[in-house]
Amino acid sequence: MNSLQYYSLFVSLFFHVAVSTAALNLQSIPFTKGFSPLFGEPNIIPSADDQSVQLHLNQYTGSGFKSSDLYSHGLFSAKIKLPSDYTAGIVVAFYTTNGDIFRKSHDELDFEFLGNIRGKAWRFQTNMYGNGSTNRGREERYFLPFDPSKQFHTYTILWTTQNIIFYIDDVPIREIVRNDAMGGDFPSKPMSLYATIWDASDWATSGGRYRANYKYAPFVTEFTDLVLHGCATDPLQEVIAPGCNAQLIASVTPRQKMAMKRFRSKYMYYSYCYDTFRYPLPPPECVIDPALRQRFKDTGRPKFDHKHQHHRFKKRSQINYGNQDDV
Ligand SMILES: *[C@@H]1O[C@H](CO)[C@@H](O)[C@H](O)[C@H]1NC(C)=O
């Protein structure tokens, strides 16, 4: 992963000696070496050289895989190509979770790609849950600045003890910096990496108005250059594999900060941090950008008298939760 040279990602070893990741060997892992089937096994199709895998969705089933190990912090990435043509109702998810082990107190970090009708831009969302904080969604939604079905692009989830960064190619698009007020909402238990394709006709595209159309099946998404970089950890023992005492530390350089700001001002169309009807007090990790706040006010929330506004838009924001705005 050449692009990581720009990430200013460091590993601090025994005495907190910072070493640039260029020195780290972030090799991709062969599919069957790092991953196991999750569901829809006949629709999981590894390449002959085991460096890539296709996930298919047809009228019978979607499909998905997960990393065989759980990781206590790490960098998870893949080059992904999304299904082309008519993809309304289709969701491709690339995420980390430990929900199958900690059912009531799970952690999760998501990229979720939400299909669209032909000719309309793909959209996606990112989200975070910690220690079962499922009643406190932290989603942000964005347009993709390119057609993700034409070429592979790299999607990265970086999770350290101090921060979480979502990247697309070289650009950090979202950073969550941990603070004490977040408590368990910041993911802390080992997680596996998952990738799935499935039919989410009920909500994915314009709140379910456009459903999956199996005339266009199979819907195919492809993953390559899969990277699992972290300490494989037994989640119940909390025992970290020997030789894995390196701790990931990541920071966003000033140049990357500018790129992130540009991406967010141009492509983000929803953030929980600016949804004052849902969260009158933004959750503690939110860093409010005055320009973004102004824009979200301007585009999404016209002013009425308080009572009326509250009633009307509370309903609206409840509808939006888990759904898609019409575009
Ligand atoms: C996580 O949640 C459990 C209850 O489900 C609670 O006992 C525990 O203290 C929480 N952990 C953190 C770090 O907040």
Task: Describe this entry's structure for a reader.
Helix content is 13%, strand content 36%. It has one domain (2-250): Jelly Rolls (Sandwich). The protein has an 8-stranded antiparallel β-sheet. Strands 4, 5, 7, 12, 13, 14, 16 and 17 form an 8-stranded antiparallel β-sheet that branches. It has a 3-stranded antiparallel β-sheet with strand order 2-1-18, with no helix packed on it. β4 (44-46) and β5 form a beta hairpin. The protein is built from 4 helices and 19 strands. The protein has 327 residues and is mainly beta. It binds 2-acetamido-2-deoxy-beta-D-glucopyranose. 2-acetamido-2-deoxy-beta-D-glucopyranose (NAG) binds at residues 104-105, 131-132, 183-184. Catalyzes xyloglucan endohydrolysis (XEH) and/or endotransglycosylation (XET). Cleaves and religates xyloglucan polymers, an essential constituent of the primary cell wall, and thereby participates in cell wall construction of growing tissues. Pfam families: Glyco_hydro_16, XET_C. Belongs to the glycosyl hydrolase 16 family.
Question: How would you summarize what this structure contains?
Answer:
With 327 residues, this protein is mostly beta strands. It has helices spanning 31-34, 254-267, 290-300, 306-320; strands at residues 9-12, 18-20, 35-39, 44-46, 52-57, 63-67, 71-81, 90-97, 108-114, 123-129, 140-143, 153-159, 163-168, 171-177, 192-199, 219-234, 239-240, 247-250, 268-271. A hairpin with a 2-residue loop joins strand 13 and strand 14 (171-177).
